[in-house]
Amino acid sequence: MSAHRLSSGGLVDRSRSLGFSFDGLDLKGYEGDTLASALLANDQLLVGRSFKYHRPRGIVTAGSAEPNALVMIGKGARTEPNTRATVAELYNGLVATSQNRWPSLKYDIGSLNSLLSPFLGAGFYYKTFMWPAAFWEKVYEPFIRRAAGLGKAVMEADPDRYEKAWAHCDLLVVGAGPAGLMAALTAARAGLRVILADEGFRLGGSLLSERVSIGGTAPSTFVETILSELAGFPWVTLMPRTTVFGWYDDNVFGAVEKVQKHIALPSLDLPVERLWRIVARRAIMATGAEERPLVFGGNDRPGVMTAGAGRTYLNRYGVAVGRKVAVFTNGGSGYQAARDLAAQGIDVAAVIDGRPAAGDNLPNGIRLIQGGGVVKVKGRHRVGGLLVERSGFEESIDCDALLMSGGWSPIIHLACQRGAKPYWSDEKQAFLAPDVGRQLLPAGSASGLSGIGACLRDGVAKALSALASLDLTATSPDVPDVEGEYDASFAPLWYVPGARDKAFVDFQNDVHVKDLGLAQREGFGHIEHTKRYTTSGMATDQGKLGNVNATGIIAGMKGVSPAEIGVTTFRPFYTPVSFGAMAGTSRGEHSRPVRRSPLHGWAKKNGAVFVEAGLWHRSSWFPRDGEKGWRQSVDREVMNARTNVGLCDVSTLGKIEVFGNDAAEFLNRIYSNAFLKLPVGRARYGLMLREDGIVYDDGTTSRLAENHFFVTTTTAYAAEVMTHMEYCAQVLWPDLDVRFVSSSDQWAQMSLVGPKARLVLQQVVEDDVSNEAFPFLAVREVTLKGGLRARLFRISFSGELAYELAVPAGYGEAVADALMEAGRPHDICAYGVEALNVLRIEKGHVTHNELNGTTTPDDVGLGKMFSVNKPDFIGKRLSSRFGLTAADRLQLVGLKPVDKAKEIKAGAHLLKEGAAPSMTNDQGHVTSACFSPALGHPIALALLKSGRERFGEKIVVWDKLRGEEFVAEVCSPVFIDPDSQKLHQ
Amino acid sequence: MASLIHCPHCGSRPKEEFSIRGDASLVRPSPSASDEEWHRYVHIRDNPKGRYKEHWHHAFGCRRWLVVERDNFTHEVFSVTDAAEAAKAVQA
Amino acid sequence: MRYSALSILKQAFSGNRGWKPAWREPEPKPHYDVVIVGGGGHGLSTAYYLAKEHGITNVAVIEKGYIGAGNVGRNTTIIRSNYLLEGNEPFYELSMKLWEGLEQDFNYNAMVSQRGIVNLFHSDGQRDAYARRGNAMMIHGVDAQLLDREQVRRMMPYLNFDHARFPILGGLYQARAGTARHDAVAWGYARGADSRGVDIIQHCEVTGIRRENGRVVGVETTKGFIGCNKLALAAAGNTTTVGRMADLELPIETHVLQAFVSEGLKPMIDNVITYGAGHFYISQSDKGGLVFGADIDYYSSYAQRGNLATVEHTIEEGVSLIPGLSRTRVLRSWGGVMDMSMDGSPIIDRTPIDNLYLNCGWCYGGFKATPASGFCFAHLIARNESHNVARFLRLDRFERGFPIDEGGKGPQPNLH
């Protein structure tokens, strides 16, 4: 037993014991522990395995930069891989499991990789595994993939809730350490809306790990005093457990709040995590500094950790990381660790200072080795002593833990996420945040300061500066004196020569000093190349611990300043963010809203089967008892519409009301056919083009009054057409007097189709709907029996006598019911979009299957709708380009299989008989296909090269994808009633 | 690009409320313009790096088309104006 | 030096001290036969094939940053040849064939992994569109399979089959598609070109294109003037900026596309998957990270970074498709700037200016094209005529009315 809980001290609540398990072992911790502190308190030094060599690894940090202590937390569908034990708040019932090891954490077969390490240097895989070629996917890669990866995702549906929110504030303070607290206090007292966010579950940051006296009180007392004052301001929001992960344009910050990650069984009344977009007028980055590890042989042994982490476990959690602890440092942090340990009665084996002369005071009896370096850490699964070299002499040091300090790196991540590069400071021996303007100011140790007093004062100063940039002033709070501060200065010591074991730079990815050297020798000298070649900085900690060391080491190899090497690009996310939080509620069935027609209820009670059509749920067909399969229902619906009467919900069409003195002129410019002279009370089929001459959308447009038109669009393009029309009206022709509004949701629209449609309609409508009074393409506002006003259109998509009746949406179901009732003696039946599609294919009408974004009006047989007389309309000019008028363009045709039993499928291609399949020989493709009940065999619409000249030709329907190849006859795309007599009956 | 857009009609609104079309400096040629001019209008883009005017549509707001003048490298927004006003100015 | 298991063995026993630089760092010569602007995947592969296929080795590749800094190192590593149109499919299939022999060809393991791609469909209309595409592939002799819902479920049981907003009806599968280690592609081509005599000149920015009598004679750079007989632009993302130096007017808009990687996870996703009900694609790298992406940010941008709304949207799509992702974590996001063309397809062509050759407009699709792009561009530069499979990728196709518009979206670049 080496690491252990002290009998007193720290900020854990010893009266509240929490049970948890690690790899099946039942352990105890206290409220206020992290999983890491609780593991250490139970002397669990071995926590994980590294990525490549599967080396045994312990806990290196006490915070979010942790590269080694990654575990799986949770059970079943709540299992979370790769969770950093150092930031996981302990709760009763927490289940943690180690990962990336087999068969067990202690005996991991993968650790044999270490023996092969001379062959596994940086980029070794680029140089081999190439022979024989077929072996990569079959042998090498599966092996590599199984060995790689860290934790295991359970791939079950997440049982918990997530949500997203916006927050707005005058000042966002990121980090609730000394600088952040004072910044927040300064701004809060001035009445600003302040958000104080910190990733920790207890606000206070580094203050919670310190033993100093602030204004005569303990740091934790000082923190509580400030927090209680802040909590009293209604304009201040305190956000613990909230990581600000990204800085985006306009000073918008992304943050994730862990709402219930510290609860074994989260309540479904609350989210487990909440994504915040925080809009901040000003922000202060009080994110602190990261302590750099030293790079020496065996620096990854469990029980080696940063000095600051050792102090945090000691002072905050009351956990000593060993019974006899050695310290290896290049600055004051290591000395403070020794003093803290000694104060708690822990034996300090020695302080090894890499600097030859510098030093600090140490309690009596602690041995100081100046100018020495650790070259090896003994032991395997835990520290078993050190080998220290000084002036060519080696010495063994007996110890069971080692604290190391390689200096400090300000945490400047956020400020560097939007393109600005950090700069190297020789004075601070660190990369500092670039000046990114007044919107985001670094404060405290994030700006390179050291010392609690200095950070407290800087927090005030930066808040005043932020306020001043908003033309606000504030009074400066009194900054209390701090007693017991230590000198945190350090001298560069990038790596320790003479290593007897691997000296790791990136712990998790097992990148060691020799890998960096190899990358330089092989030409991967640019820091971004070094990263990509060695994977240094690409692990889950994204180089928080290793990147600056890598830069320093490379600079040393090249004999240049780290300024010339630079660091790799900082990008979101500061720490990894769960997919769950980013997705929020938008998942599964809720990934998009569902749109239901006003006739949805009517369709449902008539037995409709629904189908997703974009956002809509549309009635697809209406099966009846005894019908076997959808085809039987659809055939019946089609034949009934052709012989009796059918009713179909067409409410999903886009509907736009157009008003204004120039409404006709406007429509005339956006349609390829003429609209100026459309009489009031008439409808016209219209074709809209894109400016490049390709068909955009189609629909019928009616003139309800001189200056009032009613435009319909296809269901799919309703929103796009509205946007397009707004663009044309506002940007292209702002001088036109035209206004429009979408009324898609205001109308329930139903299509009454078939030879008996008029008989049925007349029973519901007061007005005369005879052929004479209401001919084909007539439009009129009518009165329904009972007094409801409605719009009636005599238009047809099916080729039958047909009407579309539009009523206010809320009346839709009642009117549909009335039509069904009136139609009962005439054998009316509802039909859905499947039958609608069959009816239109039989009639040769096009949809977006044919208007596929590459076809011209002429391609689809609508050349007559391209006005040659109008001087200008959208798409006119570019229609005359050579390629759009070429003779061999694809043209709309019909197809009938020669063997009538053959079903043509959309997506099949067409070949000349006897031609070999090739792209050059490809003649076109089938766009729409169905079984035609009217003809009694399958039919199809197709786009065929020069198709209109080829009616009667036999052509091969080539559908190898589905194993079909047979002959069909090319014919007119209009299969029924080619003279359209039915429309005028 | 900007996380927030100051719509001249609706105030500061999240970018998600807007849809984006493209270059706002294009002026639709007259019917009598040459084929070359029409081709350039539809297909050729100046595409500068830096200051740039772009058409945005406040689709989930006032449904007005806007001209957003901004820097397409720093993503700084300089101004947002109603596109119809801009178009009228060009035509005048 | 040749890479092999033996060379690794030998080096291992000599402390790995004998490895040589993968490429030289030469100073530019005063004049080259061909200067290629852009040390990305396409520029480097062009140099490689100029040297290897055409014996043209007096070539410089000029890169303003470090090689592979652009989109070849910023993509989601997908390779595939599942295109619809005659202008594209034969070209991308040539690329796929080159991928299949690439590593042995340039003696570098780029981890080309043919793990298959499935394009999911969620409606009858989408199925028909994919059937048309699958038949187009097969008519060109390319492998394609139409999977039904149960076949997809057997391959990818973790997809959202039971609680999806848009049901998965099936997928178009190309088994030969897959992924490659993107950085290694750039390095492999660089090393192969360098070993054949090509000068790769990093940290050298082109500041001007010098013309005499209407012909290009060289480039002004931050390392001085470099003369050339032929100048080839392969600077996707910055094509307009470089092209402007020669007064080129281009059908290009520059946009930013974000990409993402998760924390490392044990193998869970074997194939490349694209979501048909939203724009989302994902695969898992050999290292264990889930690599994924979705739409561009839609606004014009030259910044290699995007915004949170697109990040959220991408991940919403991901969780909707694969519910089990919810409790995994996204590690890093980044952005690449790309040439979005007017029809979504690229351009490999001569220009109206003598001696100036253009390779641009790759939209989202540049990475998978890397081998064929270099192969065909080298062909064009060496012989002054288009390679047969690139003959449709012309600069004047818009003016002439022959767009290659796979999606039918028309001349609005951010829709492609």
TrEMBL record, chain A:
It comes from the Bacteria. Keywords: Oxidoreductase. Residues 599-870 form the GCVT N-terminal domain. SUPFAM superfamilies: Aminomethyltransferase beta-barrel domain, FAD/NAD(P)-binding domain, Folate-binding domain. GO terms for biological process: tetrahydrofolate metabolic process. Residues 501-584 form the SoxA A3 domain. InterPro entries: 2Fe-2S-bd_N (IPR042204), FAD/NAD-bd_sf (IPR036188), GcvT/YgfZ/DmdA (IPR028896), GcvT/YgfZ_C (IPR029043), GcvT_C (IPR013977), GCVT_N (IPR006222), Sarcosine_oxidase_asu (IPR006277), SoxA_A3 (IPR041117). One of its GO terms (molecular function) is sarcosine oxidase activity. Coiled coil: none annotated. Residues 891-977 form the Aminomethyltransferase C-terminal domain. Pfam families: FAD_oxidored, Fer2_4, GCV_T, GCV_T_C, SO_alpha_A3. Belongs to the GcvT family. NCBIfam families: soxA. This is Sarcosine oxidase subunit alpha. The lineage of its organism: Bacteria, Pseudomonadati, Pseudomonadota, Alphaproteobacteria, Hyphomicrobiales.
TrEMBL record, chain B:
Transmembrane segments: none annotated. It comes from the Bacteria. One of its GO terms (molecular function) is sarcosine oxidase activity. GO terms for biological process: tetrahydrofolate metabolic process. Gene3D superfamilies: Folate-binding superfamily (3.30.2270.10). This is Sarcosine oxidase subunit delta.
UniProtKB/TrEMBL annotation, chain C:
One of its GO terms (biological process) is tetrahydrofolate metabolic process. Keywords: Cytoplasm, FAD, Flavoprotein, FMN, Nucleotide-binding, Oxidoreductase. The keyword DNA-binding does not apply. The keyword Heme does not apply. Its main location: cytoplasm. It is an enzyme of class 1 (oxidoreductase). Its cofactor is FMN; FAD. It is found in: Cytoplasm. Belongs to the SoxB family. This is Sarcosine oxidase subunit beta. It comes from Metarhizobium album. The lineage of its organism: Bacteria, Pseudomonadati, Pseudomonadota, Alphaproteobacteria, Hyphomicrobiales.
